[in-house]
Amino acid sequence: MCQFAVKIPDAVLYDTHMTESQSEQLAKKIIAMHYYLHFHVSLGYCAQIADLSEEDFIKYLSENRISIFQFEDNKEFLEEMNNA
Predict the structure, then answer these.
(1) pLDDT tens readout for residues 30-80
(2) Inside any domain, residue 31
(3) Is residue 28 domain-resident?
(4) How far apart (Å, rounded) are the C-alpha atoms in residues 30 and 52?
(5) Confidence at residue 62, expressed as pLDDT on a 0 to 100 scale
């Protein structure tokens, strides 16, 4: 597994009232969201990157207005709705 470090000035943590742990968790979630959106990495892998369960990662995506459902057009969406 790949690891890397990000240097965040103490002043930023102070100004944002975040702990190192909170900043680390935020970075993991943002990186996972980016992989999901731009590289189509699976929900499972992205949840691992974010250090969340798949359910919690889906909730995080939803909080950021990102749907896990992708449709080519309205017709495909309507077909799926009719099959539900």
Answers:
(1) 999 999 999 999 999 999 999 999 999 999 999 999 999 877 778 877 887
(2) yes
(3) yes
(4) 12
(5) 95
Of 41, 32, 23, 40, give the one whose Cα is nearest residue 60: 32
Contact 60, 25 (CB under 8 A): no
What is the Cα 60 distance to its own chain's centre?
6
Question: Is 1 domain-assigned?
Answer: no
Quote the number of domains for the chain. 1
Confirm whether 19 is domain-assigned: yes
Listing DSSP states for 1-31 in one string gives: ---------HHHHHHHT--HHHHHHHHHHHH
Question: What's the domain range around 56?
Answer: 10-83
